[in-house]
Amino acid sequence: METRQTLTGRAKLSYALGAVGKDMVYMLSASYILYYFQDIMGVSAIAMGAILLAARVFDAFNDPIMGVVVAKTKTRWGKFRPWLLIGTLTNAVVLFAMFSAPPDLSPGGLTAYAAVTYILWGVTYTMMDIPYWSMIPAFTDGGKEREGLTTLARSCAGVGSAIVTIVTVQAVQQLGRIFGGSNAREIERIGFQWFTLIVAVLFVLFTVLTCINVKEKSTAEMETVSVRQMFQALLQNDQALAAVIAIVLINCSIYITSNLVLYFFKYDFGGIGWYNGYTLFNTFGGAMQILSMMLLYPLLRRWLDNIKIFYVGLAMAILGYGVLLLLTFTNMSNVYLLFIPGFLIFSTNGIMSILTTVFLANSVDYGELKNNRRDESVIFSMQTFVVKLASGLAVFIASVYLEFNQLDRSTEISEADKLVDWSLNVAQSAKTGLRMTMTMIPIIGLTIAFFWFRRKYTLTDAKVEEIAAPVKEKRAAEESK
Length: 481
Prior knowledge:
mainly alpha; 0% strand
């Protein structure tokens, strides 16, 4: 019988560092690829929106395929670590190439370059992301050890995302100046290239440490889920379907703002040091998102059930967008005023990340009782799919706005201009369109999500407790056979 020692501190730290590097790479691509190619390199916004939407939908379907490939792999190093290392190395190279587009390419050439590199990035990221999370059962025992490591890795993934969200724009500005950018756009183009190289190197280093210090069991098995299984389980479970559609609506609404907030600070809020305000706002927002998960949700849970907390969160977000819309039509000279809507919107995002898991977990128990089949892995596989779908839809909507307003074409710069107030020459109609897109579309999406969820989702705390008893009896009966 195979025995295994308790997971060492070095193994835990190495696995956690892998999560930091992995999500630094993901956040860099997810948050800045549209801005890089559309605003800095001049690729058509609508072309970029179509590329990103198609690539993310393709990537969502590609996840189950990669899961099958990993599950069938057998090597002396295990089935997970080889793909983790191969995927990381290739993804790091593609990431650097993606943010190093040759500036002298024709518009059509740049569009093709963006399409090829982004699709390759998605494929190679999936190549390492699937084995990274799937390998947890291969080197942990169940129970507290596995739960503790999963929590640690998810938390460190959040740290990696937060680091990139906070430091990217500042780092790009500084590196672009150090390495000889001749004007404002050249500073950003060169800065992104060097910053991406730093992130890629850290990504490889952290993954190598994970592969060296984490030893998987040679007998580890991996459960795989097909796209067909996902959709069959979803259509047969009305509560899972209700939760998934609400998740798509909410995530799409919030992602629209996250895709445009950089443009808002650069072209509307303005100022020569616009990136300082952007960094400060993101730092505050990231802190609120984390604190809402750690403090606000547990506090609300003392008095409210999860469905009521869901409604409170939606109301907070809608109020936040309303306040943001009002503030944008005042003299926005102080970034701290934006902390008011920022608190409401970012806190909602943190709360929803918890409730998403809770509602899907409840739908699994409901499905087991209704369909006499427990589709846990199938239902939770939908999380990745719907997040990518919502992200793709959001970036496409943002790109449609950018295509019609051409914010970056409104300001002429000379070779000597290293510091530019981009907001000075932007048409007021373009600013108004930006504000409306960032606020009114999310308000509409969140309102639809509210009424959809209220009508379709019925798993209250009392209903969940009612379901738990027969499910528990059913499992006990099966185990006694």
